[in-house]
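Protocol step 4 of 5: obtain the predicted structure for the target chain.
Materials: sequence only (see below). No template structures provided, no constraints applied. The aim of this step is simply to have a reference model before the mutagenesis design in step 5. Sequence pasted as it appears in the construct record:
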Amino acid sequence: RRGGGHSYQTTIPGPIGSILAPMREAEKNSTLPYACSLCGSCTDVCPVKIDLHHELYTWREELVKLKLLPLSKRVSMKIGSWVLQHPLIYQWGGKLGRMIGRLLPNFIINNRWNSWGRQRDLPPIPKKSFRELYRDKK
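Step 4 output (structure tokens):
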């Protein structure tokens, strides 16, 4: 639904652009294959059945081999992997994030040093997790 547009300063938008742009200039476009959750929905809707999410994953591997993955991304991926392997830490982190996130002033998240936040706004932080909402519905 939100795959189109020229959000990442490339001529070709969406997943195709995230695959083709690093082919032309890997250093300049090394972050594009990481702007994807690899859920596979782009592959599902591709009219010519290109296996897009596998192509993006392959580009990620290639960029690591080329040593074009910044330290900040490598460290955050390691931390994310560790958190996702420990469900209790994930749940605790979610609770802590929801609690602290509601208390933080907007300028702490959206400031000139946060390049991601300069172009986007975070959605409102929910009071309850999906797990808590689901449990309450039963």
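Step 4 remarks: The two ends are 31 Å apart (CA to CA). The helical segments are 14-24, 41-45, 52-65, 71-84, 87-103, 106-109, 115-119, 130-137.
Proceed to step 5.
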